[in-house]
Design goal:
alpha/beta, five-stranded parallel beta sheet
């Protein structure tokens, strides 16, 4: 594994270089104390894995992740930081990070995370993993509550393969009303068609 470290605390950077460089299977290709130097170096050679702090001077770690993923989509990136607030975590993941390890993790945890991301995994500190899971759960709860009982009834009947006219007869409403409900369902679930609406409704437990 070819690894690059980006860490503005020079003492920590050197400690990481020694620790990780001494691990069989890891070769520290380079280490930088700021994002600008890393970006310049990556124009000629990119690492397989990048370990990046977020609190960098000038260009932030999140912006660095975004730039590197644009330059080299195949490079796997693990965040290594003290930051555990929700907006920062999700901004880093959306920018392209595949892992998020909090500083304070043991050396073995960090090493295992590097190997895991190199193999295509998505290692996260337990506290961060719990935060990500909770985010999905809250999104699902919100989507479930988006739909009215009537809209859920209509979706259930759509899943059964009933036509608008058949649903209208079953629920004793007009086909036009069914069409209006379905239009509202699409908007609420941000779905383009019946199949996408059903898929999202089932995934979130709305029906």
């Amino acid at each position: 594994m070819l690894l690059t470290i980006i860490e503005d605390d020079r003492m920590l950077m050197e400690n990481l270089r020694l620790l990780l460089g001494g691990e069989p299977g890891i070769r520290v290709l380079s280490a930088f104390s700021n994002a600008e130097e890393a970006v310049a170096a990556f124009k000629t050679r990119s690492p397989e894995v990048m370990l990046v702090d977020l609190g960098l001077p000038k260009m932030s770690g999140i912006e660095l992740i975004r730039v590197v993923k644009q330059m080299h989509p195949e490079t796997e990136i693990i965040v290594h930081t003290i930051s555990e607030d929700r907006p920062t975590v999700f901004a880093a993941l959306k920018a392209g990070a595949s892992g998020y390890i909090l500083k304070g993790s043991t050396p073995r945890e960090l090493i295992e995370a590097l190997f895991e991301v190199h193999k295509g995994g998505a290692p996260m500190s337990p506290k961060i993993a719990r935060m990500v899971i909770r985010e999905f759960q809250e999104e699902a709860e919100q989507e479930q509550q988006l739909l009215t009982m009537r809209e859920k009834e209509i979706l259930v009947n759509l899943e059964k393969g009933l036509t608008y006219k058949e649903i209208a007869g079953l629920l004793n409403i007009s086909p036009h009303t069914v069409h209006t409900h379905i239009k509202n369902i699409y908007e609420k679930l941000q779905a383009r068609d019946r199949h996408e609406a059903l898929r999202k409704a089932i995934r979130t437990g709305a029906i």
